[in-house]
Amino acid sequence: MALRCAGPGRVRWLARALAGPARLLPPPAAASAPLGPARLPPPRPSARFASTAGPGPEGPQRRVVVVRITSPIAWLRTRFYYLLIRLYFDQEFSVEEFTRGAKQAFSVVSKLLSQRKLDLLDELVSPEVLQVLKEKISLLPDSHRDALAADIDSIMYTTEGDVRIYYDDDGRKFVSILMCFWYLNGANLPDEVPGGAKVFQIVFGDESTKEKKHLLTANYEFQREFTEGAKPDWTITRIEHPRLLE
């Protein structure tokens, strides 16, 4: 799964997470009747973020280390659903490849949101979500809009929030995967944002060269239809940037 830019006016995501190259298109009608356990909220795994800085040939070097502690129950649940996908939908499904493509999609979409280039998201985001985004983006202050952008190298941690399998009333089959991202951003945000929530900060370097970064989170949901004969297209059907894009 990979993202590439085809010229300055067009962005396309080539998704190979489940079956060959694919591009994102608007999703079908809302699905119903989920299979398996009820949907769980995105997990909030405990993690320790540590930064180190030291002299190098071109100045101070920076590193952020993430120590992941994941709930065993949540991990087993997502792996069970991935097994179902491989058994009943696509034998070549790869969690690693899907995750790489999801990170690339998140980076591209978040930058386009930050730049207010929503017209380039038609093939990436569902029409319903895109309409809501247009209304919210227009009301954001510049600092919050800048904080939406995530460079691919600034994504510190990625995990699956939820995996679901659907059948709608017409018997069509769908898979939905919610991905959660933690990323660093240097936007000029206040220490507290609306709602009284704190923004976690990381400072690199010494007093003369220090650089402050905010550790932010985002949740993006990807959906694909698996009905026989359907195109292997993925669509982003949910976008959340807590404390920024409310």
TrEMBL record:
UniProt-recorded name of the protein: M-AAA protease-interacting protein 1, mitochondrial
Q: Which domain of life is it from?
A: Eukaryota
Q: Which organism is it from?
A: Pipra filicauda (Wire-tailed manakin)
Cite the GO molecular-function annotations of the record. Answer: peptidase activity; ribosome binding
Q: Which UniProt keywords apply?
A: Hydrolase, Protease
Q: Would you kindly state one Gene Ontology biological process term found in this protein's UniProt entry?
A: proteolysis
The UniProt annotation puts the region (Disordered) at 33-60
Q: Which GO terms describe its cellular component?
A: mitochondrial inner membrane
